[in-house]
Amino acid sequence: MFLEAIWLPIECLACLRRSNFMDSITNVSAIQNIVYIASSILFIFGIKMLGKEATAVRGNYLSAIAMFLAVGITCLNLGIDIKIIISGILLGGFIGSLIAIKVKMTAIPEMVALFNGFGGLATFLIAWSQFNSPNNSFFQHVLIMLTVYIGGITFAGSLVAYGKLSEILKLGKGSWITNILISFFYLSFPALLYVICEPFISQFIPQFSSYFFIFLGLTLIAGLGFVMPIGGGDMPVVISLLNSFSGIAAAFAGLLLLNNVLIVAGSLVGASGLILTIIMAKAMNRTIGNILFVGYASTSSSSSFSEEQGEVKPISADDAYLILENASSVLVVPGYGMAVAQAQHVVREMGELLEANGTEVKYGIHPVAGRMPGHMNVLLAEANVSYDLLAEPDDVNPSMDSIDVAMVIGANDVVNPSATEEEGSPIYGMPIIETHKAKTVFVLKRSMSSGFAGVQNPLFFKENTRMLFGDAKESISQIVSEFKD
Amino acid sequence: MEIYVLLGFVLLLSIFLGLELISKVPSTLHTPLMSGANAISGIALVGALMLSSEDQTQTILAFGAILFASINVFGGYLVTNRMLSMFKKK
Question: What is the span of the domain harbouring residue A279?
């Protein structure tokens, strides 16, 4: 014990000396390193504060300050012409700000995907440029290949995600193009292994100098193949995973360039993306591997669950209004359909009218409702719904029996009772919002088509369920105008 | 080699720190958190600034990296801020 107490300070002193030595080889001056540490700390606090409603705005500012510090201090020690840097930052800043200010709040999922892709592309280019530097050690060579790979997958994958979310790209699972791209994705694993081992191989076989460019192209195609087969309700998982990748790519670039702040910030992003991915996968009761590589199509083939299970009971908006007027508690459960119909504003209006009528209104939000984590929360926030009215499944399920009306707006799989009742169902075990236990359920839907999972929803055939067919926005507008009369 | 071990240590600790920090985020904040983290991943900008440009290819690559990382940084922070300013408690 005693010896240890003496030994520790000595070791620390030795560390200090070693760090002088490190400065000379990393070419980052001491001041720069100190600022990097400060900026890392700000990033850590920033991301911590982003996790709480009350402090989130300040958290974002803090992390922006951290970014400013880190970028500013790096400019003291440049290897590139300052004009190139300034024009790059100004142009990038202009484009980024323009997109960020112009974008509609409903287009947030694809915007996040696009920005994420640009981050990946930046690391991809960094590693490419580093490959062209002379005298890379073997370890640097490995890091270059890994950074190229993760950055490239992030970039191409995010582009596909952008295309899918903005509905420009309609290709999905099963198309022959998708299948070819998927084969390229699997081909990229041995290719990665090859390029990593290339310095060894080239000692025995004559050098194949253009292998790196083939690898660059293959990585991008593999990224397309990675995301192409995934779609619909699985998008939240892919988006968070790509987010995590962009962080990991930055962290690897940090290892490559021997830069602390890149490693810390990149790892934080990687970890936060990973957590979101896990939360999303848990909310669907599926493994990440199942979501990425299997999908629903191959599991939901049994026909016994897709049979009609009785008759649905349609209801008109007028009748729905009469029931709502007499309800003392209403739970709104939104899904992707609400986003498609752009119904969030009328939903908020209806909620306010109900509250004015003495009804208790809550919003039950499933973690995977929509196309990205927290999609419904953003839409309702945009429509000015107070965030303390938004509840998670665990908060609303225990008191579901006492709810007079549960209004399901464009949600399907997340309220499917098969998940708790039918053991053979493909979505069995997925945590749902148990609206079928409410006294009355309104389901607002365009038609009787099944949800993303392709599973028939027994909720529609329950005794207490009334179907309000039609466009969600129109139906609710009708209810709202009834209230006003 | 020693420095890689040291930096690898930093990498691992930061990942664990990140996992600890964000393990209990309310689902209301999932999107802003993702978008905010996305802006932070624009830290690649610092990496891009550290690149050297010995020939034209490297200069072009560095310019591209700076450009795209800047889009990520500016766009990411602004969008996050716009989103967060909508979250209100009445």
Answer: 107-295
In a domain, residue A14? The reply is: no
Tell me: the pLDDT tens digits for A159-178? 999 998 888 887 777 788 88
- Is B86 in Cβ contact with A382 (below 8 Å)? yes
Q: With beta carbons less than 8 A apart as the criterion, state whether A237 and A280 touch.
A: yes
Same domain, A112 and A42: no
Smallest CA–CA distance, residue A467 to chain B, in Å, is 28
Q: What is the largest CA-CA distance in chain B?
A: 58
Q: Which domain CATH number covers A368?
A: 3.40.50.1220
Query: By mean pLDDT, which of A97-101, A242-246, A365-369, B23-27 is the weakest?
Result: B23-27
- The Cα of B56 is separated from the nearest Cα of chain A by a number of Å equal to 10
Active-site annotation holds for A413:
yes
Could you write out the DSSP letters of every residue in A248-301?
HHHHHHHHHHT-HHHHHHHHHHHHHHHHHHHHHHHHTT--HHIIIII-STTT--
Q: Residue A28: which pLDDT band, with cuts at 50, 70 and 90? A: low
My answer on whether A339 and A387 are in the same domain is yes
Query: Taking CB atoms and an 8 Å cutoff, what residues of chain A touch B43?
Result: 43, 67, 70, 250, 261-262, 265-266
- Looking at residue A232, what DSSP letter applies? G
Q: Do A243 and A349 belong to one domain?
A: no
For residues A191 and A181, what is the distance between their CA atoms, to the nearest angstrom?
15
Residue B15 phi, psi (nearest 5): -65, -45
Chosen from B10, B16, B24, B41 to mutate, greatest number of chain A CBs within 10 A: B41
How confident is the model at residue A302, as a pLDDT? Answer: 42
- Asked whether the beta carbons of residue A130 and residue B51 sit closer than 8 angstroms, the reply is yes
Structure tokens belonging to residue A102: 């112009």
d(CA A276, CA B38): 13
The mean pLDDT of A388-396, rounded to a whole number, is 90
Which of A275, A295, A315 finishes a domain? A295
Average pLDDT over residues A369-397: 89
Count CA within 13 A, CB hemisphere, residue A387. 22
User: SS3 letters for chain B?
Assistant: CHHHHHHHHHHHHHHHHHHHHCCCCCHHHHHHHHHHHHHHHHHHHHHHHHCCCCCHHHHHHHHHHHHHHHHHHHHHHHHHHHHHHHCCCC
Residue A23 has pLDDT above 60, yes or no: no
Question: Which chain B residues touch A235 with a CB distance below 8 Å?
Answer: none
pLDDT band at A12 (very low <50, low <70, confident <90, very high): very low
Q: Please say if the pLDDT value at position A156 is more than 80.
A: yes
**By CB neighbour count within 10 A (0-12 exposed, 13-18 middle, 19+ buried), where does A68 fall?**
middle
The confidence score (pLDDT) of residue A272 equals 92
Residue A331 to chain B, least CA–CA distance (Å):
17
Percent of chain B at pLDDT exceeding 70: 99
Half-sphere exposure of A358 (CA within 13 A, CB side): 4
B23 contact residues in A (CB cutoff 8 A): 275
Find the residue in A nearest to B79 (Cα): A100
The continuous run of DSSP H or E covering A75 comes out as none
* Residue A352 and residue A221 share a domain: no
Cβ separation of B58 and A261 shorter than 8 Å? no
